[in-house]
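ok so I'm stuck.
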Amino acid sequence: MLNRTVLFFSLGLVGVLGLQAQVDISLQFKKEFYLAHESLLAEVVIINFSGKTLTFGQDRHWLQFIVEPRNGSFIERNGDLDTMEVFQIPNASKGIRRVHLVPTYKIEMPGSYKITAFVNVPELGMQKATPPVEIVVLSSTVVWKREIGLVRDEQDPAGGIDVRRYSLMRAVNRNKIDLYVKVTDKFEGEVFGIYSLGNIVSFGEPEKQVGRHSNLHVLMQNGARSFRYSIVKPDGKILLRQRWDYSNTRPRLGMDSDGLMEVKGGVRKPSFDDIPSPSQINKVREPRNKSTLSTGNEQESTLRQVDVADEDQ
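replied:
not stuck anymore, here's the structure
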């Protein structure tokens, strides 16, 4: 009887392992280092070789995460993640589901965190966990702040005024210094956006100016002869990112004849990570009659599916 029981358990275990081997699940992040309150976009990659189409997203618990600080405790979830979107992954295909973990998980204290995703596969009657991925929250130093007023309704200039606070912060990342920008309300209780503007030379002091339409302009040196120019909107989104180099003169911030901020001197160098891309740059110009401008790249797809039948895994 004991032998039959052991044999049954062993066969069942082989069956479960066989099913798990038919579905590969992994967790990815675009980078390793973050600041507190920065957007943390998790990418769950599901590769289906089960022989049939798999359906996900039919209930809110199909995808879950565990976030563990280095001290071994768990970060409690504050509300539900936005995972309710039904999608299918055919056989020999790959699906990528993107989920913003912040602010549902309050990952705020500096230190290392291990994050694991758990995916329910109803058609196969199983749950599978990804290998844990480690991310690091950096400590930072505020180097500059500026509060600005923002009209709530552009159609009613006499209406109420909201206050936004721009902050520039430095953080050390593996012997490099990154410059971050954060946009909050006056009391920093609500965070509208926080982004890395890139690395800055240790001897460099960024130029920063708030333009006529309340956008923040930052020009910083990130190499021996290279600079990065960024424009940040009061709603916390990046409007523009460009590379500029030394020429006969050094790039610097200034105003054009219309009183709008621009880079003077130096030479513009189109780069692969420009926002927007070099082909769309003519669309970006601080507007003369509006306080915000959409670049068309602010919405990010949450689901992507590609065929992997011929992909070497």
